[in-house]
Structures are given as C-alpha cells and as structure tokens.
C-alpha cells in the first residue's frame, strides 16, 4: 500500500500523544493545528460563526446568538454587517441586495437574515 501524505502527520500526532501520557510532569504541547490538504489556503477570519445559503432571489444568513448578547444586522448594497455582543463581522455578498426589502429576525437565540437580491 503506498504511503499517504497524511501518514507522517498522523505519526507525529501519535508520538506527541504517547509522550504526553508517559510523563506526569508536563501537559500536552499541542496548542493549535491547521491541515491544508491541497491548493492555496484562503484564510477566513470570522468574528461570528454563521451559515449562508443562496437562492435565485435571496441570500439567507443564520447565526446563533447566546441569550446574554444583543444582536443587530445592517444591510449594505454589497454586504451585511452582523453585530452580536461586542463582535462584528462583515459578510461580503456576490450579488447586490435591496437593503429596503431585506429583513432579519431574532427568535430563541437564532438570528435569521433574509437579504433580497436587487432586481
């Protein structure tokens, strides 16, 4: 069986885990990890986790809002600005939207924004 490009990564993870469980002096040393399988990475830094789907007439954005935070949405012709608590994220859109017809609701910790595409 040919070697997979991920074999060495997995071996390194296993070695680090084995070392962390052998000694009682030090905690594991893994702080963070990024695995890029192929292609050029395009880093996305999000302040707010959200999901976005698109239809022929609208763009739908959904985000979870913890109960102790306020939330607001600002519609721009080419973007949407989500504000949840002290975090803010600008979502660039592929299609221009009609800011007057676009709306959002906040119900039971779920923010739903409906961005109506411009005619």
From TrEMBL:
Pfam families, per the entry: CS (PF04969)
Source species, domain of life: Archaea
Domain CS: 45-119
Coiled-coil features, chain-numbered ranges: none
Protein name in the entry: CS domain-containing protein
